Amino acid sequence: SFQPVFDMIENDVSIAASVLDESGFTDLKRAGKGGYFYWVSPDKRIMIKSISQAESLQFQKMLPHYLKHVSENQNDTLIVRVLGLHALKQTNGHMIFFLVMTFLFSDLYQVEKVYDLKGSISNRG
What we know:
The chain is α+β, with helices and mostly antiparallel strands.
């Protein structure tokens, strides 16, 4: 259950307002190197990121450790708050897996440098 994460951010983000905003999500128009897609809520507080089935399974394995870390370090970590892990089955049988999370690059923070997990800063805005 992602309830501990919701409880942590309840005062910071109105999740329902972000997700249900009538102006809709913005497609960032840039698929990651793996061909995944990113959408951001109109208020730039919520992001939806598609992931592979393997990544979905890996995240499920990591979930207890993730929840423990963000619960114990809620004011001392910038690790993104994952609000949910979902899967949709298309009519052709293809599964789409995606994460719903807070968007670290919202106007809540002033970002000076962006790194990917390998430490690259090229093409990171």
